[in-house]
Amino acid sequence: MTLLGELAADRPYGEIEALDLYGRLVGSWDVVNRYRQPDGEWITGTVVWTFGWVLAGRAVQDVMWFTAPGPDGYPVRKTGSTMRLYDPEAKHWHIVWFSPLGRIWTLIGRPGDDGDIVQEGRQSDGSTVRWLFTDVTETSFRWLGYISVDDGETWELEQEMLARRRAG
């Protein structure tokens, strides 16, 4: 047995309808990524975003490979991963995003309006974040990342990703 063999699952656990919230994202996506730097400059890059069932089909994990221009003009690749675990008692998802650089964000996920997914929580610096999956279809979605430094009184868009499902 290998770690990846033990981690991965080929389908969701049972017939729990709530697992469909993130289960519909399982697969690989090509993404155009636009994000704001601390100085306000917007940078555009690409992402390969892969979602899969893990932990006996009771959770959905993703891995993201970001590619963006580096300081010297050559592409730089970075990665991160998100684990999503459904809590049947609370009827929401516990979400942890983490990078190999030690950055960690924790959020709560739930269904939004019209098939959207709403995820809210805090960055490691204490700022409030709201991450939304919107316009979700079988072949595409839009992801919006907002930040608030005043506990949700005002929100600023800091990232937008437009995704298309990879063929095959």
- Cα Rg: 16 Å
Q: What is the makeup of the main sheet?
A: 10 strands, antiparallel, barrel
Distance from N terminus to C terminus (CA atoms, Å) equals 27 Å
| SSE string | HHEEEEEEEEEE
Q: Helix count, per DSSP? A: 2
Query: Helix proportion of residues, in percent?
Result: under 10%
Uncertain spans: none
Q: Describe the strand arrangement of the main beta sheet, using strand numbers.
A: 1-2-3-4-5-6-7-8-9-10
Shape type: globular
What's the total number of strands? Answer: 10
Kindly estimate the percentage of residues that lie in beta strands according to DSSP: over 45%
- Based on secondary structure, the structural category is mainly beta
Give the overall average pLDDT: 92
Protein name: DUF1579 domain-containing protein
Organism: Actinoplanes cyaneus
